[in-house]
Specification:
AmpC-like; 11 strands; Beta-lactamase-related domain-containing protein; 361 residues; Beta-lactam/transpept-like; globular; two-stranded antiparallel sheet; Beta-lactam-related; Beta-lactamase
Length: 361
């Protein structure tokens, strides 16, 4: 699921009301005061990086949060998946504008959906995770295991939300199909491809990609819902290549820096990654990444790339400037899936503005 509502609402207020340029330390502290159990931020300007941390990794024990604590990165996973797909395009094992049907006959219902349309969410494939009934098994049993192929089949059985290529409509199904494509053309698991192509070369030793294990191993933030119920133990199987990964703020920052500075992709494929379709007045979507326009208090704007993620117990944001010289990664350990499904605003709302303006304006 995307943690977009609170972010976009917050961004929309910038141009109307000046926002004080608060130090990041204050911004992070204020998130905890507002009600988040913990907030962990990584920032970088050029070669200089720093952390700001406030709150608790575990409310029951009083363990304080640190930059080393792992968390579920949810839809930030999509950028990893898109990077692998684009590398396969560079190896001429996939092409962006060929229908998925060419490699996976019948999987998307014999529809002319291209690989590009999967990655930029213009396929029209439905997202079963938008349906509260989808969550009933795992909410009743956090160890419940979903099979990605079953989720894709359920989505493909419905009519498209729009003709392919005509409208952006965010759907986790797109990235499950992308995972299936990776496995089909490589003959190996998508998880292994992410490890071999990204995690190992970038030395992301604190990042993992579980398939069905509902626990987070090693030092980690506990995740909570709005009632402060601990929802850390939760099967990631529903999200697979759309959002199952676990990381730290430093590892996530290293990945996005490598993605946008050309380490992972050559210039032609980086251009494809950054070819966008409109989402709303402030956001466009590329291939697995968002481009967001940040209005600054002085009337100027900044163009930011990256991802947001939201799933049971966790919010995360990873943003980087066009030149890859400035970054902000933020992890929060509060997210309520039931409220998200009911289209309720986050309680407390995620006020990113002080952190964004301090880092980028």
């Amino acid at each position: 699921m995307l943690a977009m509502v609170g972010v976009l609402a917050a961004l929309a207020t910038v141009s109307g009301t000046p926002v004080p340029d608060l130090p990041l330390r204050h911004a992070v502290h204020d998130m905890v005061v507002a009600g988040f159990p913990a907030a962990i931020a990584y920032t970088r300007s050029g070669i200089d990086s720093s952390h700001e941390v406030a709150g608790f990794a575990d409310l029951a024990t009083g363990e304080k949060a640190t930059p080393d604590h792992r968390f579920r990165i949810a839809s930030n996973t999509k950028a990893f998946t898109a990077a692998v797909v684009l590398q396969l395009v560079g190896e001429q094992r996939l092409t962006l504008d060929t229908p998925v049907e060419h490699w996976l006959p019948g999987v998307v219902g014999d529809r002319p959906i291209t690989v590009r349309q999967l990655l930029n969410h213009t396929s029209g494939l439905r997202d079963p995770t938008d349906n509260p009934e989808f969550w009933e098994p795992v909410l009743a049993d956090p160890a419940h295991v979903y099979r990605p192929r079953d989720i894709v089949a359920a989505a493909a059985a419905h009519p498209l939300t729009a003709p392919p290529g005509t409208r952006h409509s965010y759907s986790n199904t797109n990235y499950l199909v992308a995972g299936m494509l990776i496995e089909h053309v490589t003959g190996r698991s998508a998880v292994l491809q992410v490890y071999q192509r990204i995690l190992v070369p970038l030395h992301l030793v604190h990042t993992s990609f579980p398939l069905s294990d509902p626990r987070i191993h090693g030092r980690h933030l506990r995740g909570y819902d709005f009632a402060r119920k601990d929802v850390t133990i939760f099967s990631p199987s529903y999200d697979w290549t759309a959002g199952a990964m676990i990381s730290t703020v430093d590892d996530l920052a290293r990945f996005h820096r490598a993605l946008f500075d050309g380490t992972l992709l050559p210039p032609d494929l980086l251009r494809e990654l950054k070819t966008t379709v409109p989402v709303n007045s402030l956001t466009d979507y590329g291939l697995g990444v968002e481009r967001r326009t940040l209005p600054c208090p002085d009337g100027t704007t900044r163009s930011l790339w990256g991802n947001t993620g939201g799933g049971p117990g966790y919010h995360s944001y990873s943003l980087i400037t066009e030149d890859a010289n400035h970054q902000l990664v933020l992890a929060l350990n509060l997210y309520d899936i039931r409220a998200d499904l009911a289209n309720e605003l986050p309680i407390p709302p995620v006020n990113l503005l002080p952190a964004l303006t301090t880092t980028f304006c």
